[in-house]
Structures are given as structure tokens and as C-alpha cells.
Amino acid sequence: MGDELRFHFNIDGDNFTSAGEASVEVKKKLRQLGFPPDVIRRVSIAMYEGEINMVIHARGGDADVLVYPDRIVIILEDHGPGIEDIDLAMQEGYSTAPDSVRALGFGAGMGLPNMKRYTEEMHVESTLGVGTKITMVVNVQ
Amino acid sequence: MTVSEMASALDLTPVSLGDTQREVTGGYTGDLLSWVMGRAQSGDAWVTIMSNANIVAVATLADTAAVILAEGVLLEPEVAELARSKGINVYTSPLSAFVLCGKLAALL
Lengths: 141, 108
Hints:
The complex is a heterodimer.
Chain A lengths: L4 E8 L8 H12 L4 H21 L2 E8 L3 E8 L7 H4 L9 H4 L8 H7 L3 E7 L3 E9 L2
Antiparallel strand pairs in A: 1-2, 2-3, 3-5, 4-5
Helix pairs in contact in A: 1-2, 2-5
Chain B lengths: L2 H7 L3 E4 L9 E4 L3 H7 L4 E5 L5 H9 L3 E4 L7 H9 L4 E3 L4 H11 L1
Parallel strand pairs in B: 2-3, 3-4, 4-5
Antiparallel strand pairs in B: 1-5
Helix pairs in contact in B: 2-3
């Protein structure tokens, strides 16, 4: 730590309409910083999925994006219900999202798998009733 | 082919316009947003019947060239305004997603 650029966002848990604003903001900043389009796309997709998850499941949370010359680290932390079975949650198609959320086009069970797909490293720490912390790393090639 | 050329070839009605000279390099269809986010490629024309505000974020982040609303779907005025503010190309067509994709595939 030390010389990284850090962006912090508070994710509003009640607002599906504004969900994604933090990711769009990160995309804009990374573009201004001149990162390659593929890196920007992967960071912003992974972060958007995390943002949506926090809105659906955890009444919001905090997102930190740490920008280093060779990698971008995304840390998402919420105080939601926690993930009961992380291996199951990582499977494509598995979702616990309510029908109201599915009607909006979410809840396909692709959120966590997409986050894994688009990042080089992904760590999920979750405690039932306490919350979830997800750390993702995207390398800059 | 540019977005603008695609729009006239498919007889699409504009809902929100951004950079219509952008190149369309492929196509994708789907209504499950994470699915689209994970699979659509940058430069794709995305055919969907989903019309809520989240399609603007998905189109921005997945970097699609244009969104084509099938089956005559329209955007609520505030969603259309959001799309315009983000410079997202959105069109609508009375055709089904199936027919639109068939025509688009033949064009590309």
C-alpha cells in the first residue's frame, strides 16, 4: 500500500435505478488514467456484479477500488446476511434472488461466476449474519 | 458497419442517440442482465426486450455499440433521458428479437 490511487464508494442498498453508478464512475476514471479497454471492461463488469449483489442481498455496502500501475484491486464489503454455501453460490445459475429482482433482469445466478471469470484473483470471506467481503484483483497486462 | 448504417438497414426507430458512427462488430441477444454482461462483447448490438434503467448501466459497462429494443418496447422518459446522458445508442423495432437477430446476422 502507499502510492496507490484509491476510490471509495458507498453503495445505496435501496436503489436499483442508481445501482451501477459506482462502476460507471470507476470505468470513467480508469479511462482517464489510460488503462487498456480490456482491463477497464473487466474491472467495471466485476464491480457492477458486486454492486448489484450488495443491492439485492445486503442493503448496500462499501466498495473500494485501489489502482496500482500493474493491477487493480476491488474490495466490496457489506453487512448483509452472508453467503451460506460459497461453493454453491459460485455455480452458474444458482441464485437466491427474489422474484421481484428477477423481473428486473437480475438473479440469473451469474453474478459471482462473472466476477470470477473477469478477474485474476477472487477471495470471498463471508460469515452468516455478519456480512461478506469480496476482494478481486485484475492484472494489467 | 456503423450504428447509423445498421439502424437504417434494419429500419430502427431511435430512442436515444450517442456516437452513431461507432462500428458494430457483432450482436448479442438476451434479457438476463448478468448473462448479457458476461457474454456480450464490446461493439455488439444488443437485442433485448428489457427496458428498465439497468440496461443503461449494462450497455455502458459491457461497452455495446447499440441497444435494440425488440417487439416495439419503448423506454420510460426518465430511462431514455438517462441513456441520452450516458451517450448510449438505443433504438426500437416492432420486430421480434428472433427476426432482428436474423437480419442483423445477415448484415454483419
